[in-house]
Amino acid sequence: MKILIAEDEPDIAMQYELALKDRKHDVIITNDGEQCLEAFYHELEKDEPARNRKMMKRPPFDAVILDYRMPKKDGMEVAKEILAIEPKQRILFASAYVLETLVDSVKTLQQVVELIQKPFELDPFVDLIEDKGIYSELEKLNVNAKEIKDLNPTHQQVLDLLEGLKKLQKGRAL
Q1: 15 φ, ψ to 5°?
Q2: Residue 153 and residue 158: Cα distance in Å, rounded?
Q3: What residue stretches are annotated with the Response regulatory domain (predicted)?
Q4: Helix (H, G, I), strand (E, B), or coil: what is residue 65?
């Protein structure tokens, strides 16, 4: 997976990077909101020829991890800008900010984003990014998760598959 992280605390950023690289993910670390947007735009520019030919159907990153409070631009500003350009981009807020305030703030985005409150253990954090819980639910529905992973779907595609299968299963149970 290709993951963009905006985290202004160097020790925390290093922990994220090590945990994700240990699981073979491609990670870009930025220290503030402006750097995060620069990295995002840089990745978009690399894919511009494919976008012009309507070939690119997925966001430039599998996940963008944002701290809520950062220098230069906070995570909410960054999320708004990214989602305005790429509405299907998966965004996760990893923040120590008061959860209720964070939930209220992300509602202004009018799009689904994920929240994980600091402090947290790194393994569950990486599992969340990798959609381990979703794949586990798919396996309970007798789906071969490995075959699905091999297709390299986006997070939204995996969620849609799970929801569709749940609806089918519910229809059969009636």
Answers
A1: -65, -45
A2: 6
A3: 2-133
A4: strand
